[in-house]
């Protein structure tokens, strides 16, 4: 999961400068190569000196961090070009000025569009990058996609503390109240959901060979996007990591995902990881096996299953209770 090639997009805005600085720090930390690309807003022409300015940024970064940097001389990138460029990078760092007005509410974030086409992990930068990430928060849903998400977050900064966060859904509680289930039965159901989530969280954290003082976990209840943002503010995390289910443009428009809401409302950097993403280069990945993959202790025996079933996953949760 260690990035060896990073691609940074900039539009020469304040956020674009932050993105270049963050990408440079990550490259210096992981000895990765950096590629800089200028990306103009839709229906906007690049400035006449865009290529010169981008080359100047590359020279500054190369001299300051002693890393390999290249600047793309092409200035008329389309959505297809962006996806093609991103496909060859292990990590994309996105730095464009935020979209304002109705486009921000009824259109997907540009990074989501790129992620949908390119299937590469992308960091959307909004804060100045004067030091490596000091703390990270990872939003997990206990699916198989949570494992590569956590592994990538752990690899971004080997010594930064990482907090795993899960928001327990309360959707079924509304159904129970609509069916006039007693408050005591609802409290019992809520406790069962909490105990199941705790079991799953323990199983997830135990699967990583990380220092105990580095990896922690917490739970919330309610809307996942809102709870993640509240937890991030309480923990003062520098980066939120969240997964993104595959979805069409129409689906993203009609049913806003948790990742989209976090991108729109977060006041810190956000790492969005598409579910099922693969390394940028299969050949390069094979060549790195001897050095990049962490050594993980494997416990003998079958994996421990949660001691409490997931009540929220039952098809008929109302059968757990007696309805007078």
Put the structure in a nutshell.
The protein is an alpha/beta fold and about 325 residues long. Helices cover about 40% and strands about 15% of the residues.
The topology string of helices and strands comes to: EHEHEHEHHEEHEHHEHEHHEH
The biggest sheet amounts to: 10 strands, mixed
Percent of residues in beta strands: 15-25%
Low-confidence stretches: 282-303, 315-324
Q: State the strand order across the main sheet.
A: 3-2-1-4-5-10-9-6-7-8
Please tell me about this protein's structure.
The chain has 324 residues and is α/β, with parallel strands linked by helices. It contains twelve helices and ten strands. The protein has helices spanning 14-30, 50-65, 79-87, 102-106, 110-118, 146-156, 171-178, 183-206, 224-235, 249-254, 258-265, 282-292, and strands at 5-10, 33-38, 69-71, 91-95, 122-124, 136-139, 162-168, 215-221, 239-244, 269-274. Helix 2 (50-65) links the parallel strand 2 (33-38) and strand 3. Helix 3 (79-87) packs across helix 5 and helix 9 (224-235) crosses helix 11. The model is unreliable at 282-303 and 315-324 (pLDDT under 50).
């Amino acid at each position: 999961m260690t990035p060896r090639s990073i691609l940074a997009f900039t539009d020469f805005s304040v956020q674009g400068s932050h993105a270049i600085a963050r990408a440079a720090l990550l490259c210096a930390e992981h000895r990765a190569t950096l590629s800089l690309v200028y990306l103009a807003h839709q229906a906007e022409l690049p400035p006449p000196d865009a290529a010169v300015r981008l080359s100047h940024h590359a020279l500054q970064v190369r001299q300051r961090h002693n890393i390999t940097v290249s600047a793309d001389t092409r200035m008329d990138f389309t959505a297809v070009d962006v996806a093609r460029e991103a496909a060859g990078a292990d990590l994309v760092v996105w730095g464009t000025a935020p979209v304002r007005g109705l486009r921000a509410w009824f259109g997907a974030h540009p990074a989501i569009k790129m992620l949908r086409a390119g299937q590469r992990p992308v960091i959307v930068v909004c804060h100045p990058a004067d030091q490596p990430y000091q703390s990270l928060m990872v939003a997990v849903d206990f699916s198989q996609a949570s494992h590569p998400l956590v592994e990538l977050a752990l690899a971004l900064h080997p010594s930064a503390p990482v907090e795993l966060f899960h928001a327990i859904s309360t959707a079924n509680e509304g159904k129970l109240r609509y069916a006039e289930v007693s408050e005591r039965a609802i409290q019992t159901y809520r406790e069962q959901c909490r105990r199941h989530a705790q079991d799953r969280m323990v199983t997830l954290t135990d699967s990583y060979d990380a220092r105990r003082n580095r990896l922690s976990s917490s739970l919330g209840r309610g809307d996942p996007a809102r709870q993640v943002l509240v937890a991030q503010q309480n923990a003062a995390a520098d980066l939120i990591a969240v997964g993104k289910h595959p979805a069409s443009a129409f689906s993203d428009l009609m049913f806003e995902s948790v990742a989209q809401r976090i991108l729109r409302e977060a006041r810190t950097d956000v790492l969005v990881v598409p579910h099922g993403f693969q390394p940028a280069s299969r050949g390069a990945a094979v060549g790195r096996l001897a050095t990049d993959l962490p050594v993980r202790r494997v416990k003998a025996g079958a994996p421990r299953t949660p001691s409490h079933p997931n009540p929220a996953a039952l098809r008929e949760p109302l059968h757990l209770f007696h309805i007078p």
